[in-house]
Every structure is written in C-alpha cells, then in structure tokens.
Amino acid sequence: MLQTTISILCFLLYAVNAIPTAPQPSASAGIDTHSFSKTTEYPLPNLGNVAAHDPNIIQYDGYFYLFKGGVHIPIHKSRTLDGPWEEVGTVLNEASVIEKQNRTRPWAPTTVEWENRFYCFYAISESGSRDSAIGVASSDTPVGGNWTDHGAVVNTGQGAMSEIYPYTVSNAIDGAFIKDQKTGEPHLLYGSYWHGIFSVPMAEHLLSIKTPKKPDATNLAYVPKAASKPIEGSFMTYKEPYYYLWFSHGKCCHFDVHEFPPMGDEYSIRVGRSTNVTGPFVDKDGNKTLQGGGTIVYGSNHGVVYAPGGVGVLSGTGSEADVLYFHYLNTSIGFAQGDARLGWNYLHYVDGWPVAIEGKSSLNATSSESNGRILRPDPTLNSLAMLSMCYSILLHYTSRNSYLKSLVHSSGCAVDLASTSRYA
Ligand SMILES: *[C@@H]1O[C@H](CO)[C@@H](O)[C@H](O)[C@H]1NC(C)=O
Ligand SMILES: *[C@@H]1O[C@H](CO)[C@@H](O)[C@H](O)[C@H]1NC(C)=O
Ligand SMILES: *[C@@H]1O[C@H](CO)[C@@H](O)[C@H](O)[C@H]1NC(C)=O
Ligand SMILES: *[C@@H]1O[C@H](CO)[C@@H](O)[C@H](O)[C@H]1NC(C)=O
Ligand SMILES: *[C@@H]1O[C@H](CO)[C@@H](O)[C@H](O)[C@H]1NC(C)=O
Ligand SMILES: *[C@@H]1O[C@H](CO)[C@@H](O)[C@H](O)[C@H]1NC(C)=O
C-alpha cells in the first residue's frame, strides 16, 4: 500500500491552494468526472488482471513473481504478466519484527535477487506519519515459507539511528534498489514527501547500510519550493549509458469521489536520468529532479486510467523491450485502495527517453529503439509477432532448451520469458 503521507499542515496548505483551480463538481453528480484526463498521449495499459497496490515484479525460473503491499506481503506467480496469478504464500509468517505502527500490513515491497538469495525490502509506516522503517527479509526462494525477517535497515521518526541525517528529514518508506555499474556497490533508495528520495550505499550482505552511523546518503529527488512535496515510490534501472530514476508524483489514494484534486495533481509516473548512480538526475527539459523536475512517462488517460503510480520496470535483455508496470485506478470500477489494478506497457526509448507504447508486442518497442524514431508496425512485424508468440508458447514446454530460448529472445518476445533477473 502506498502511503498518503501528507502531513496535516501540508494537507491544509494544499487544500487552500487547490480551491481556486479546483473544477466545480456538479452538486447532484455522484462523481466529478471533469477531473479525469481524456488524453490519448499515453496508451491504455495491458491488463495484469490482478488487484495490486505498489506492485513489484521479478522474473525467476520461468515465472513472474509479484510482491505487493498487504497482510504479511502477499506473493503471486504467473507465467505471463497478464496472469492468471497464483498465490504462493507471503514474505512474512507473522507481523514484522519492527516495533512500530501496524506491523501486520507492510507497504510497498521491493524484492531483488542478489548473490543467489532474495531480499525483500518493505516499509512499516502509517499515512501522514514519518515514524517509519524500511525492513528487510531474505530467502533462498521467492515463494513463501522460508523467508527470514531481519528487521529494520533504516528508521525515521523513532528507532535506532533515526537521529542521524538524512533520517532526520526523510521518511523511511518505499525501498528500492540499484547496483552501481562501476563499483558493483548496492544502493538502497527510499523515501517520500518531506525531503524526497534518498540513495544510501548498503553493506554487501544487504542486511544493513554500509556505514550505519555515517550513511553517505545522497538526495536524488526533492520538491524544494511547494508546500506539498508529493514524490515517493522510487525505482531505479540502468540502461546504458544512463541510470533512470522513476518515481510517483501527486496524490496516490484516499480520493473523495465528490471532489477530486485538480487534473494533474493526482499520481503520475515520472523519470529523470543520469550517468552517475547518485545523480544529479535531470528530466527531458533539463530540470533537476532535486528541483522538482521529472518527465511524465505515464499519467491518467482516456478518461479510464486514473492516478497511475507505484512504478517498477523490468529490464529487457538483448532484443527484449523493457516493461513498465504500475498500479492504476479504473474510473468505471472505483477509487478505493483495494480497487487498484496491475497494468503494464512496453517501453521504447527515443533519444534515451522512455516512452510507454500500446499493445502487447515488444516489436513495436525494439524496432523503433534501433533508430530512435517511432515506426508504424508493418505486416512483416505483425507476422514476426505471431511467430514470437508461437515460440514463447513452445518455450513453456521446452524451457530448458537454450537454442529455442535464444530464438525467442532474438525474435523479441519478452512477456512470456523469464529466468533473467534484474540484479544478479
Ligand atoms: C493492522 O492491519 C491489519 C490488516 O490490515 C488490520 O486487520 C488490523 O486491524 C490493523 N491493526 C490496527 C491496530 O490498526
Ligand atoms: C530454507 O533456508 C535455509 C537457510 O537459508 C536453507 O538451509 C534450507 O535448505 C531452506 N529450506 C527449504 C525447505 O528450502
Ligand atoms: C557521482 O557522484 C558522486 C557524489 O555523489 C561524485 O563523487 C562522483 O564524482 C560522481 N561521478 C561522476 C562520474 O559524475
Ligand atoms: C523546467 O524548466 C523550465 C525552464 O527551464 C521551467 O519553465 C519549468 O517550470 C520547469 N519545470 C519544473 C517542473 O520545474
Ligand atoms: C476498466 O473497467 C471496464 C469495466 O469493467 C473494463 O471494461 C475495462 O477494460 C477496464 N479498463 C482498464 C484499463 O482497466
Ligand atoms: C503497435 O503500436 C500501435 C500504435 O502505437 C498499435 O496500434 C499496435 O497494435 C501495436 N502493435 C502490436 C503488434 O501490438
């Protein structure tokens, strides 16, 4: 679950600021549909066919594994991103060992594979509170049943070392992970609202910060000027030569259907990039993410998709395209936290900037990536798409056949494949 963490003060300032520009909902209408963007600038998502808030997905041994906020951190697996998703236990067997807030229902897990073990970073917090922690659990398998809860790696508000900068100014939620490509050093990313997103080098075993009493942290994204600082839920990928810092900006949840925030103030998925793992990250207009910058990659669209966020990216290997995945609300279904659904789109990169594309063929992505401009799909590509589907079906039954697998890879079919991990 993501984290409405507006402090009461910020919320009041926000509400006051919002009044002059807020669209007037008609008194009789149940829902103020004027606040829903009908833009076609972003494609509709492919349906994940599963409820999810703050989804996190890894690929392992022929399956996608989905981790999400929920009681004890539920785990699901599926052969494809479209499901069907099978529940395969939970990360925690009981409440987290971190003694603060509601330890039963951690938020926003991020799981990584690191030296043949799985590490799940999760958050313990409560809406509007900075008394939070990032915890970590580890296991030799991504399914439930054999995870060990190691407790907090970062505390803010209260708890061990919460008096050390930057824990004094930040909020320990929404953990994410990146390996420095030059040094191999692991970094924990975390944070929301207050002082934005931070990156901190971790110990090689991933169970603590590298230098706990002097964390050597770097602020990656921040909104210095506005009263409300609604950035959270970061994720980082590397695609040569850039690190991409993804995050959500805006109001995530607890929407009042009679008065939505002004259009554009709800969640959207933004990105900045840098050649350095610790930044500075800049957006497409050259604005620094430390100065409130961030290019919108995916926002509300078609009058259907509302407040997409909780972003993650599956890095494609070889000719596979990257996959952008996220949760969103469907305006014809509902606006409660439990109504959030998993959606996904392939990405292509134009001049090194990610663009979400329509449809389920990564060929659209890879073909345009090679020459940096958007191509219309042609009949050859469509036949190739069919071929690649056939290969991927075959792959189900021959997952150990590396020749077939390489064929599938080279034909650009990413959805059905697994066994590549993002961080190993
Ligand atoms: C903690 O969260 C669980 C699961 O959402 C809920 O059932 C329980 O009532 C919560 N406990 C408290 C003290 O809020
Ligand atoms: C559970 O994990 C422990 C330690 O990581 C390992 O030794 C053991 O084989 C695992 N058990 C199962 C059933 O996978
Ligand atoms: C990356 O950032 C760190 C500090 O954040 C700095 O020491 C280093 O020189 C930077 N590297 C490059 C290539 O800019
Ligand atoms: C980005 O920079 C331009 C000018 O360089 C400015 O007009 C714009 O407001 C900035 N956007 C953000 C989000 O800071
Ligand atoms: C939104 O919900 C409608 C009605 O259930 C459904 O037909 C449509 O496919 C959904 N769209 C998305 C993007 O979830
Ligand atoms: C490729 O993208 C176009 C428009 O962006 C879309 O209409 C088409 O369905 C996509 N092709 C495939 C095979 O998904």
Any descriptors?
424 residues, mainly beta, five-stranded antiparallel β-sheet, four-stranded antiparallel β-sheet, 4 helices, globular, binds 2-acetamido-2-deoxy-beta-D-glucopyranose, GH43_arabinanases
Describe the structure.
The strands form five sheets. Strands 1, 18, 19, 20 and 21 form a five-stranded antiparallel beta sheet that branches. Strands 2-3-4-5 form a four-stranded antiparallel beta sheet, with no helix packed on it. A four-stranded antiparallel beta sheet has the order 6-7-8-9, with no helix packed on it. It is built from four helices and 21 strands. Strand 8 and strand 9 (148-156) form a beta hairpin. It folds into two domains: 1-30 and 380-424, no CATH class; 35-376, Glycosyl hydrolase domain, family 43 (Tachylectin-2, Chain A, 5 Propeller). Helices cover 11% and strands 33% of the residues. The chain has 424 residues and is mainly beta. The two termini are 27 Å apart. The record marks 174 as: Important for catalytic activity, responsible for pKa modulation of the active site Glu and correct orientation of both the proton donor and substrate. Residues 1-18 form the signal peptide. GO terms for molecular function: hydrolase activity, hydrolyzing O-glycosyl compounds. The active site is at 54 (proton acceptor), 232 (proton donor). This is Endo-1,5-alpha-L-arabinosidase.
